Amino acid sequence: MLRYVVALCLLALSWAQDCQVANIQVMQNFNKTMYAGTWYAVGKKDPDGLFLLDNIVATFSIGEDGKMTATAKGRVIILDNWEMCAEMFGTFEETPEPAKFKMKYWGAASYLQSGNDNHWVIDTDYDNYAIHYSCRVVDTDGTCLDSYSLIFSRHPTGLRAEDQPTVTQKKLELCLLGKYRRVPHTGELISTKRPQFLMNSDASSDASTSGTVRLCGSWDCIPPTLFLSLIYCLL
């Protein structure tokens, strides 16, 4: 019973939030060097359109020029039932606020994302959890029409129990409480089922170029150009 009372209280508090994108608080004194490294997405609020589904692993790096880049891998499904693994590459443009970045996706990866997104670090302790938020479309009233958010952990097994209250509070402040789903890590990034229309195609091309989407399956990888053709069919 107590659990339901707490849930109702949190829901009421969520309704009381103004949900204005301009009022969202981000991480203070953000340190991108400490943020760098590998993070496992353990929860996410999906945006509109195609997006990584599960087994999402992101690695942030700081270059010699001080700029941050990231690669992300995960499983996606297109054409209703075709599973594939996607590897994406992005670069970050800094803003006057250290925890707010503009993220640009490169190559075929831009077809899985909008091409340019905000990347806001809402909160992190650098060693265990991090909360990412992006609003793609702001409504006329200042709230977000199309957003996505990722809950990251340094551990693929999920968040520590002691981090859960902090993460829940941040979900509330983002007006996204109850809108996340768990991101499992099964290690099953490689599909074992080849689409029927590719059964006779030549799929021996190397698709390991940085910034491309790698389509991995029991047949190795198919050319990125074929992937782009499929995406165009979906537009």
Q: How do the strands of the widest beta sheet line up side by side?
A: 1-2-3-4-5-6-7-8
Estimated structural class: alpha+beta
CATH architecture: Beta Barrel
**Could you please say which CATH topology applies here?**
Lipocalin
Order of helices and strands: HHEEEEEEEEHEEEH
Biggest sheet features: 8 strands, antiparallel, barrel
Number of domains: 1
Q: What is the count of β-strands?
A: 11
**Rg from Cα:** 19 Å
Number of helices: 4
User: What is the CA-CA span between the terminal residues?
Assistant: 47 Å
Mean pLDDT: 77
User: Which superfamily, in CATH terms, is the homologous superfamily?
Assistant: Calycin beta-barrel core domain
Low-confidence stretches: 12-16, 190-235
- Proportion of helical residues: 10-25%
CATH class: Mainly Beta
What overall geometry do the principal axes of the alpha carbons give? globular
